Structures are given as C-alpha cells and as structure tokens.
Amino acid sequence: xxxxxxxxxxxxxxxxxxxxxxxxxxxxxxxxxxxxxxxxxxxxxxxxxxxxxxxxxxxxxxxxxxxxxxxxxxxxxxxxxxxxxxxxxxxxxxxxxxxxxxxxxxxxxxxxxxxxxxxxxxxxxxxxxxxxxxxxxxxxxxxxxxxxxxxxxxxxxxxxxxxxxxxxxxxxxxxxxxxxxxxxxxxxxxxxxxxxxxxxxxxxxxxxxxxxxxxxxxxxxxxxxxxxxxxxxxxxxxxxxxxxxxxxxxxxxxxxxxxxxxxxxxxxxxxxxxxxxxxxxxxxxxxxxxxxxxxxxxxxxxxxxxxxxxxxxxxxxxxxxxxxxxxxxxxxxxxxxxxxxxxxxxxxxxxxxxxxxxxxxxxxxx
Length: 366
Known about the structure:
It is a single chain. This protein is of the alpha+beta class. It folds into three domains: 90 residues, conserved putative lor/sdh protein from methanococcus maripaludis s2 fold (Beta Barrel), CATH 2.40.420; 90 residues, Elongation Factor Tu (Ef-tu), domain 3; 118 residues, no CATH class. It has three helices and 19 strands. The strands form two sheets. The protein has a six-stranded antiparallel beta barrel with strand order 2-9-12-11-10-13. A four-stranded antiparallel β-sheet has the order 6-5-3-8, with no helix packed on it. The termini are far apart.
C-alpha cells in the first residue's frame, strides 16, 4: 500500500512541474513577440509637398469664343479675254503690281482694225448722205419723207456699227479690272483665246478679309461690331471689329458666317492662311479665372486643389469645379472656387487630397 501511494504522489508532482514549465515558456514567447511588434498606435511620418498657389479673385471678364478662319483677299479677280484671237504681246510679268485699267496683254487686232476703218468710212458716207437728204427735204421739199428717214436711220446705224468695232478694238488689250498684284498668268505669246478664256488673276491684298463660321448656339450673342482678336500662324495679331455677321445658318456645318477686315502693310499676310479668331460674345461680368493647367480632369468631371488649414497644418483639398470659357491660358471657374481661395498652380500633379503642403510662392490672380 505504501509503495503504491508513493508512486501516485510522484506522478502528481511530475505533472505539476510539466504544466508549470509549459506556462513559463509561453509567457516568455509572448513577451518577446510583444517587444518585437512595438506600440500598437505608432504611425509613419506624413510627407510634405512644396507647392505654389495663386489667390483667386474676381475680375472683369468678357466671354469669348474661339473659331478658326481663313484669310482671303478683299478682291480676287480672274481676268478673262473679251475678244477672240492670238496673243501677240505680254505686257506685265507675273508678280508685278498693276493699276486699275493697266494693259496686261495684247491680242492680234489686225482684222478688227481693218473692219473698224471700214465701218468708220461707211459711217462718214452715211452721215454725208443724210445731211444732203435732210437739206433737200427740209429746205427745198425735194424727195420723199421716207427717203429722208432712211438716210437718217442709215447714218445712225453706220455710226453705231463703227462704235461697236471701236469698242471691240479696245478690248484686244486685256486690262486689269482692279489694282493689285498679277498673281497668275495663264497665257503666253502665241496662245489662242476666245471670249471668256481665263488669262490672268489679279489679287488686291490690302486690306484682307478673314472669314469664319460661328456655331449656331452663339447666334444671339455675336453681332456686327463685336470685338475680335485674330492670331496668325506667322505670329502676327490684330484687334479688329466684325464687319459682317451672316443672317442664315449653313445647314451642313450648322454655323453662320462672320467676316472681319485686316490691314496688311508690307504684304506679310497671304490669302489662304489660317487665322484663329477670339470673338467677344457677351457682356463684361465679374468672374474668377485660374490658370488652365490648374484644372485637372477627374473621373466625375474637373477638380482643382486648394490649400486649407487643418489641425494647424496646411493641407491640399480637392474641389470639384464647373468651368466656363477662358482666354490667354486661363479658364473661368463658375463654381467650386471662391474669391480668396489659394489655388495650387504648381505641384498640383504631385499632391493628393489630405497631403500636407508647404507654400513656396503665393501670388494674387490677375
């Protein structure tokens, strides 16, 4: 009995020691793990982005629309032959300036000249015959009234025929109908022309006109006299007024025409050049404008970043905005930004909403 009791006691002691040892091991491992993990509430340092801002403010703004136009000559005339024949002389070189009425080329006029001389002679004879018949009839009552009338109408017909041939003879000299530049010549000496054959092109490039089409939605906003700023690809600009605004809408392009006149000293502008027109289409109203680059496209529209203060720090805040038209690299903000807001204009691509920022440059919008 005593041996069996002793054995049972040793077994109980061993079990207690094993349990105690296991408990001690777990406690040691748990402490080490806790020391490795560190404090549960520790956070990484937040980044700071350097930005430049522009303080938004209201300023007078006239709404403008931009369209593309084409430069055209004020007068561009294709000169045609008015008589048939062979070109015998070229009197003006291509590219030369010509005056209105100046002869450009000469058609062989030998046949017409002879016909004209014949007609003049016939007219002189008819006139003399009429004068004699008139004196006989009016003074001496010799002859008949019918012979008198025939002599009269014969003289008038012969004179008219002579004038026709004189006019045709003049038309053998092809003349410039307007002053300008002989931009093209379509004939050479020896060319045969008929009535209506194009022979030359004369362009008057001072002043020039610019034609453009304006979308129909602006039909009630663009009127004659509207201020227009024109920019050409050669770097020249001009401030002019609309000289003509069309009444009807083109059914194909859904636009109506607008025309402006531009002076062209020195001939720097050429017909056919492309021009960009900015047309004042509304009254001057106070508006907030920001640089176009400050407006970013988002999934739901457009946003800008503004700098606000939060918990004593400057942070970037995303603002959904509604934009309007603009000019000179700026765009109107119709909603989303108020006067006095600090709009990020440099660094807007590097920040996200909630980022801390440091303002390096601050300027007032202008």
